Amino acid sequence: MTAMDADQLSELLSRCALRDQQAFRTLYTHSSAKLFAVAVRITRRRDWAEEVLQESFINIWNHCANYSAAKSAPMTWMTAIVRNRALDLLRRPREVEIDEGHEDMMASIPDESPGPEELLKQSMEAGALAECMKQLTGEQQKSIALAFFNGLSHGELARQMQKPLGTVKTWIRRGLERLRTCLDAQAI
Amino acid sequence: MKFANEALRNKLAAEYVLGTMSARARRRFDINLKENPALRRAVAEWEKRLTPLALALPEIEPPSRVWQVIESRIRPGRQARPGFWESLSFWRISSFASGLVALALLILVALPGVPPADDTRMVVVMNDLQTSNPAMTVSWEPRKPGKRVMRIRVIGHADMAPGTAWELWMLPGKEQKPVSLGLITTHDAQIVIVPEPLAAKLDGAEGLAMSVEPAGGSPTGLPSGPVLYAGKCVET
């Protein structure tokens, strides 16, 4: 699969707005593997990730007329759709407490795939975000990576990191604030 | 206004994008997002900041069955909206039951402030192409010197997605390209003035259509977004 740049993906999205199914197919071919990785990472289950990817692309097809290249890059826009759907799905069963198998799976994350800190390192190879991430404390980095890659809520983070809820919230809040200041300064 | 404080907007947007909100907080936030453009901007900024993390994940090829399901669900005739030119074939399907026209006339006559027709009028009942229900009516007095005053009624409470605009098009018929009549709003009663050179052409148009365009209107001069409503011109 060849990588497509943002302009090419934007053009495909605008053709989708004209109900061009061929363009949509091309869009899927060039973005689904990246987006599926995002869905798999958060949901931790292939079947859920497939559902997320499927519903996200139906959503993209139905709303591509709303996409504005001036407001966000195509992959940013599509990733947000996938992440939001995955997070909604992930939050759902916690409330009714079903599927203990999934809880077991959650517990075994560190053994079966790269942990969030490792992923953070992988993603830190280039770019402004990497530079700014390095300015955070270890705890701030870890809590932000756990939340982002594993889709954990504040409460779940506190349990997993075995720290008081208030402490974890503060790490995240201060970490994000420092990230924002650093990224916005680099953007100027 | 809710979330007038920028620091609060920024904090909540960051938590939403990072994904640390509980299910209930997410649902509440989703509702606020729909109503608050400043909050949407804050979220878009955080998405821009954090998405590089997600895109650094090693790619995973999804199984082919995922695309098969997507493809079957976007096929025309299912829930997808028809394309613009497909919507033109819509005219030929004579789905304009005379009852709908009668209903539209009844609405027009019953409205306060709409003068009774003293002569013939052109009436267009524009249907929602997804539901086939009447969504908008347009009427004007044809064959006069000068401009045309089009009276537009939007039936029901339609939503316009943020950052988009509704553009009204004249479909001249006989394979000619659509001509823009300008942007309209979702207000239930509005007027569009069509100036002279276009006015006479309007009387002979085959139909009208409304498409969803980027804010400010179609960048190409032709419909670029999905056509939501369309209808045929009828002289009464």
Q: Provide mean pLDDT of chain A, rounded.
A: 84
Number of helices of chain A: 11
What gyration radius of chain B follows from the Cα positions, in whole Å?
Answer: 22 Å
Chain pair forming the biggest interface: A-B, 69 and 54 residues
Order of helices and strands of chain A: HHHHHHHHHHH
Classification by helices and strands of chain B: alpha+beta
Strand order of the largest sheet of chain B: 5-4-7-8-1-2-3-6
The number of strands of chain A is: 0
Structure description:
The complex is a heterodimer of chains A (about 190) and B (about 240). With about 190 residues, chain A is mostly helical. Helix content of chain A is about 80%, strand content about 0%. Chain A is built from 11 helices and no strands. In chain A, helix 8 packs across helix 11 (about 165-185). The longest helix of chain A has 23 residues, at about 20-45. The two termini of chain A are about 35 Å apart. Residues about 95-110 of chain A have low confidence and may be disordered. In chain B, strand 2 (about 135-140) and strand 3 form a beta hairpin. Chain B has helices spanning about 5-20, 25-35, 35-55, 65-75, 85-90, 100-110, 195-205; strands at about 120-130, 135-140, 150-155, 165-170, 180-185, 190-195, 205-215, 225-235. In chain B, about 35% of the residues are buried. Helices cover about 35% and strands about 25% of the residues of chain B. In chain B, helix 1 packs parallel to helix 3 (about 35-55). Chain B has 7 helices and 8 strands, in the order ααααααββββββαββ. The model of chain B is unreliable at about 80-115 (pLDDT under 50). The longest helix of chain B is centred in the first third of the chain and has 19 residues, at about 35-55. Chain B has an 8-stranded antiparallel sheet with strand order 5-4-7-8-1-2-3-6, sandwiched between helices. At the A-B interface, helix 2, helix 3, helix 4, helix 7 and helix 9 of A face helix 1, helix 3 and helix 4 of B.
